[in-house]
Amino acid sequence: MPFRTTGKYDLVICDIDGCLSPESHAPINIAGLSRIAEHNRLAIQNRDRPVVTLCSGRPIGFVECLCRLIQNTQVPCIGENGVWLWRPTDNSFECDPAITDEHLETVHEARKLLRSLFHASGVIQQPGKSASVALYHPDTDYLRSIVPTIAEEFQKRNWPIRVLMTWLYINCDLQHVNKATAIDRLMTQTGFQRERTAGIGDTMGDRFIAERVSWFGCPANSEAEIKEAATYVSTHNEVEGVLDILDQLAH
Ligand SMILES: [Mg+2]
Known about the structure:
With 251 residues, the chain is α/β, with parallel strands linked by helices. It contains nine helices and twelve strands. The radius of gyration is 18 Å and the shape is globular. The mean pLDDT is 96. Bound molecules: magnesium ion. Magnesium ion binds next to loops.
């Protein structure tokens, strides 16, 4: 049976970095998160408000942990920009079936190339990714400066990999996999409907969430460009902004 509520929405698909936790390594606001957890507990118990699930570029293990912290026991969450679903109902992981051995081989080649080009300059490949590469460097301006070179090197080799800078990382993801393709899988498997689904995000990577939902909100700290895609922009930052957005959805 699909999860249905008595409210206008059944589901909220929420980005993590810049929404529920800072994109930096600053501590997570656990008081705010516990209010999200309380929201989810009531949503699942009373079916009177939408359940909040996660859709993030982070490694799926990080997403699974936050999903459990916010007490979402019902709805799959999405990690690695759409590569993985994790289902809290039975603890199962699903890699996008459209990712072939050949794609994995290309990602592996990309890892080797990026290591040979940038390891000496201190560029770190974020651990925990399995079908994509995320790059980090403490000097964000330096990191931003190497984006065109990376895109060019991939293009020269005809690798089907998208290169996108977030606030602090460079994400190299398979072109045919993104947050939207994972949301499609989630919807098909669970029976949630776009008209009864809302989304929350803070950067242009979240346009893939915005285009799959019927209502989209941004916390105050979001990029100007994604705010233009929003139905509502909160005056509060990060998790306080998400809590404010959940309030808006209740009315
Ligand atoms: Mg974000």
